[in-house]
Structures
1.
Amino acid sequence: MRFPTKALLLLSAGLFSAGLFAASAWAVPVSFTQLTGLTGGSPAETAVFKADLSSVGLATILSITIRDNSGGLGGATGQFSGFDLDAVKLSTTDCADAACAAGLAGLAVFDFGAGTHFTPGSQRPPADPKLFGTGPTGNTMDNSVARLGAFDGNSTTAIPGADGFISMGDNGILSFNLTSAASTAGLRLYIGEVGNNGEVAASDIQVSSSRIPEPATLVLLGLGIAGLAAGRRRHS
C-alpha cells in the first residue's frame, strides 16, 4: 500500500504517540505522606515522603517517573530551579520517620546510569549553563553529584557546598527503569526532597508495570518514517 506524504507524517506522529503511550498505558500516580523529622547531609534539611505501592493495582513495577509540576513557584532559581531530588528508594520496610528511611539499604533495582532518563526543565532567571547535578551537557543526570541511592543532600544553594542531589528544573522529567521487576506486595517508595519546601506536592510521580522507551528508539523510528515521507515527496 502506498501512503500519501501527509498520511506518512501523521503515521510518524502516531507512532511517537503510541510509543509514549505504551510507556504510560499501565502507569498510575502515587500519593505520598511526609515522614516525621528531616535527614540529609549538611545542612540536613531533606524531607522524606513515603508511598504505599501495595495498593496501586499493579502486581509489579518496572519504572518510576517524576515530573516537576511546580509552575515556577517555590524553591530556588537558576541551576537550582524545580524539584530538588535527594534520593529515591524502594523497600518493604515501613518507616515512620526520615532517619529510618535514610538508613534503609533499599532494593537493588536501580541503575542510576543507563537506566535513568532525564529531560531537563526550564530555569528561573538568572539562568546558569545547566541544572545542578546534571552531566556536561545538562541533558543527563550526574550521579557522582546527585547520589540518588542515599539521603545525603546538602540543603544549600551555595557553591561550593551544594551536593548530593539533582535539580530537575520547572517541568523537568526524571525516569528510572528498574533492572528487574519489583513486586508491589508490601512495597514502599521513599522520595527525598531537599529543603523541605513543598516541591513534592508540586510534582507528578507515577509508577508503571512497563519500561520507559529509550529516547533514541523513538527518535530513530521517527527519522525512518520521516525519510520514507521525504522519499515519497521526491517521487510524487
2.
Amino acid sequence: MKKLIFPLFLTIFAVTTFAQTGEKNFIDQPYIEVSGTAEIEIIPDMIYLNILLNESDTKGKISIEDLEKKMKQRLSDLSIDVEKDLTVNDLSSNYIRYFLKEREVTATREYVLLVHDAVTAGKAVKALSDENISNISILKVDHSQMAQKRFDLRLEAVKTAKIKAEAMAEAIGQKAGNAIFLSEYNDIANQLQTNVSGMQARSMRAGYNPEPELSFKNIELKSSVTARFILN
C-alpha cells in the first residue's frame, strides 16, 4: 500500500512544482497591459407586442372568439403571418374568465405579436384599436443577429487592445509580442424592454384614430477586454 502512495505523492509534488515554476516565469516576463473597448448601435428588427383581448372593451357586445377573428384578419391585411408571428401568451388555457362586480363575468385572452419594424408596429396598433382591441403594450425589442453582433464586438475589442499595445510599446522603443492574458467584461446593452418613445402601455384607447408614429431607440452594445502582451 505504501508503494502505491509514495509514487502518487511524487506525482502531485511534481505537478505542483511545475505550476509554481510556470507562474513565476509568467510574472517575471516584461509585459504591457491595456484595455480595449468596442461599441455599436443596431436597429431592432424584432419588436414584441403584448395584445390583451377583453370582452369588456366592447361592453360584452363582441365575444372573445369574434375579437380573435377580427384581430387575425386585420393583422393578415397588413401582410403579417399570424400563424408564425402571433402566439398565445398563456398556453395553459384558451382564455381566462374572471369576475367583475361579483356577478359579471368577462373573458380575456393574451397574445404576443412579433413585428420587424416600427412602421408595421404602428400600423398594427392602429388596426387593432379600430376593432376595440386597445390593451397593447411593448414586451421587448431585440435583434435577430444579436449573438453574432456580440461576438463580432468582442473581436473588435481585442483588436483595439492589440493596436493600443503596439502603439504604446513603440513609444518606448519596444514591440508588443504575443498575448499572454485576455479577459473580457460582460457586454453592456441598454435596456429596451420598456424604453420606447411614441407609445406607452395601454395608451391606445378605442376612438383614438391617428396611426401612431412609433420610434425605437437603437440597441447599444458595448464590449471591453483587458489584455497583456509580452514586451520585446
3.
Amino acid sequence: MNTLVNTKHGNMFIMDNDSVIGRNLDKYGEWADAELSSLGKMIRDDDWIVDVGANIGTHSVYFAKKAKDGVVFAFEPQMRVFQLLCANVVVNDLPNVVTLQAAVGACCGPAIARNTDFTAKENNFGAAVIVPGSEIDDKGGYIVNMVSVDSLQLKRCDLLKADIEGMEYDMICGAERTISELRPIMYLEAHKQNIEKLCKKVKEFRYDVFLHATKMFNENNFKNNKEDISEGYIETNIVCIPTERNIKTNLTQI
C-alpha cells in the first residue's frame, strides 16, 4: 500500500512497508533534513543537479524547488521505488525534474538489483544492492539498466549527489570527464569500509574533501515527534569542493 503524507518540503507518496525513509516521512514529516539544509546553501536558482540514488525523491523534490530555473536528473533503479519517485515529482508539480530508471556506475550495461522484495512486511528500500552484470545467482534480484554519469554528456553539472550503498567509487570512475570539465560540488555517502578509498579517488581531481556527519533523528522535526526511532544513528557523507572554488566551511577537512 502507498500513502500520501504531508512533509516539510511537499506532499510525498510513501510505501507503507518502507521501514526507513517512508517511516521517517510518516512519523516526522521529513528525511535527512540536516543534509538538505546544508546542500540548500550551495544551490543556485539555475543549477543543474544530478541525484544518484534518488529513492522516492525526498532530495530531488527539494533540489528542484531550490533550483527552480535549473534541472534535476533523478536516477533510481528499483522499479517500484522509481514509480513513486515519478509520482512525487508530479504531485509536487516539478517539470524541471528528469527521472531515469537506472543505476549509475563505472560503465553502461546491465546490473542486478538485490534486496528489493516489495511484498515484504518491512524492508529498507534505501539499502538495495546493485551488482554489475546479468547473471542472477541464488541471491536473487532482477536486471536493471546501468549508465555512467559521463554517458549523459551533460553540458553543465553544478551538484552531484550520490547515495548508492557503497557504489559511489564506481560512480566516480564513470564520471571522470564530468568531474574534470564541469567541476560540480559533490555530496557522497561514505561508509566506514570505503571512505578512505573514496576520498583518495576524489582528491585525484583536485578537490577538497570534508566530513559531514548528521543525526538521522531531528528533535525539532516538522511533526514535533520526540520519539527517536533511529536510536541515535549517524549518517556519514563527504562534501567535495573543487579546490579552485575556495569555499569557506566549518566542516572538518579529511
